[in-house]
Write a structure and sequence with these properties.
Helices cover 18% and strands 25% of the residues. It is α/β, with parallel strands linked by helices and 228 residues long. Strands 4-3-5-6-15-14-13-8-9 form a nine-stranded mixed sheet, with helices on both faces.
């Protein structure tokens, strides 16, 4: 048995009957599923650093199987047109928490989204809208920057344009101020969090570490509240 600890990601004990077998958390804890493409997973890096269990799942997973997960992460330049959009929308409506990280602009689709949202240009720096939000606990100012490096520091490969009024914008593009970088919304009994943020610098830069930890603590907390 492997006992996993750290911060508010909570204590989780897993029993793995044999190598390669599916590891399940006890019923009192939530299951976390990750949908990732070929470019790796920021979610798996962050969760592994906290020894928190997760499972890799297929984007075409049947809708009834999604209900087994308290939190699902669609991660790192994944083409959203490749998921079973209707099933993921129903998953949220029925109480699931969906976290979309740094989606790919090419192949962006809104079939999973209950409200209007469009993809925008990449983000070098973002500005926080509400410093009191749990995502920004411990931030010294209103800047989100230096989450990754490619010919200089930047935040993410996208932003979100023309979000519907149902979304709450948590951080904005520093230049295209109408574009959101992080936003959230409730839908039915569930919750969505969208973030055009990379985490290449997780464990290397304070802002990336702090935001990554806060983001997953917040998402896991929402999922646990809905799983009671």
């Amino acid at each position: 048995m492997l006992c996993l600890t750290l911060t508010t990601l909570a204590l989780t004990c897993l029993e793995c009957p044999q190598p390669g077998a599916e590891c399940r958390a006890p019923s009192a804890e939530i299951r976390i599923g990750i949908v990732k493409g070929t470019l790796g997973s920021f979610a798996s890096t962050i969760l592994t650093s906290h020894q928190t269990a997760f499972e890799l799942i297929t984007p075409k997973v049947p809708g009834d199987s999604l209900a087994n997960y308290g939190l699902i992460v669609i991660d790192n330049l994944f083409r959203l047109q490749d998921i079973n959009g209707a099933a993921f929308k129903t998953y949220v409506e029925n109480g699931g928490v969906l976290l979309v990280l740094n989606p790919k602009a090419d192949g962006f689709s809104r079939t999973w989204a209950p409200y209007d949202i469009f993809i925008g240009e990449y983000t070098i720096e973002a500005r926080i809208n509400n410093r009191k939000h749990p995502l920004f606990s411990g931030f010294p100012d209103d800047k989100v920057t230096d989450l990754a490096d490619s010919n200089g520091p930047f935040v993410g490969n996208c932003s979100f344009a023309e979000p519907g009024k149902e979304w709450t914008i948590l951080a904005r593009h520093s230049k295209k101020k109408k574009n959101a970088v992080i936003l959230e919304a409730g839908f039915g009994r569930g919750h969505l969090i969208l973030a055009c943020t990379r985490f290449d610098n997780y464990n290397a830069k304070p802002t990336a570490t702090r935001l990554g930890d806060n983001l997953f603590n917040y998402a896991v907390g929402l999922a646990k509240a809905r799983n009671r």
